[in-house]
Design goal:
about 45% strand, single chain, eleven-stranded antiparallel sheet, alpha+beta, 3 helices, about 25% helix
């Protein structure tokens, strides 16, 4: 009888622990969603590290990022080269020293997906996109870590997985890891994050 009672207590504690873990993930999602809703703008510096599977060298670049709710994003590389990606609604501007191109993302499926992933990753909206990603969330140190596994065929052709690190204090993304299908990996660290400050409309001009 004593053994049965102990076994039941063990099973109950195990079930309770699982329930707590599930509730914890729900709470994390809610906090991230609430932070995204409250965020009208975001600007920061970033360091991007590209690791090619076939090479030992890493390619490191630096830049600035600006976001304005809900459909404006400026991704600007400043070192070691200059390159600008701006999304404003359905239009995207790609610009370097030699040329600039304006693309209607409604007419270009690849750019539409790239733009959507970049935008949703910045604010964490992709956590609720169950049709595109299967998401699991864990806690590591002071970060919430969301691992997104592509579910759609077109996404699987681009990525093995996407990993988002969220700073618990601000419930905002601090690192993005993109693991491509071929094994190449890109890590983007966001630094000096400033939220809800005024950004000049000119920053997102597509022309």
């Amino acid at each position: 009888m004593k053994r049965i009672t102990l076994s039941l207590l063990f099973l109950f504690s195990l079930f309770f622990s699982v329930a707590q873990a599930q509730d914890s993930e729900v709470q994390i999602r809610q906090k991230i969603a609430a932070a995204a809703q409250a965020m009208t703008s975001l600007q920061c510096d970033f360091v991007q590290t590209k690791q090619l599977k076939m090479l030992n060298d890493k390619m490191v670049s630096e830049g600035r990022m600006y976001y304005s709710q809900k459909d404006k994003l400026r991704w600007e590389y400043v070192k070691p080269y200059q390159y600008i990606f701006i999304m404003n609604g359905d239009r995207v501007l790609l610009k370097n020293k030699e040329r600039s191109d304006v693309i209607d993302v409604r007419q270009n499926k690849i750019f539409r997906e790239i733009a959507r992933i970049m935008m949703s990753s910045v604010v964490g909206d992709c956590l609720s996109d169950d049709r595109t990603f299967k998401t699991s969330i864990s806690t590591t140190g002071g970060d919430w870590v969301a691992t997104l596994l592509p579910q759609r065929k077109d996404m699987k052709q681009m990525f093995q997985k996407i990993i988002l690190h969220f700073d618990q204090r601000q419930a905002t993304v601090s690192r993005v890891e993109l693991v491509e299908k071929n094994g190449d990996q890109t890590t983007i660290d966001l630094k000096n994050i400033r939220k809800n400050e005024t950004i000049a409309p000119r920053t997102f001009a597509v022309e």
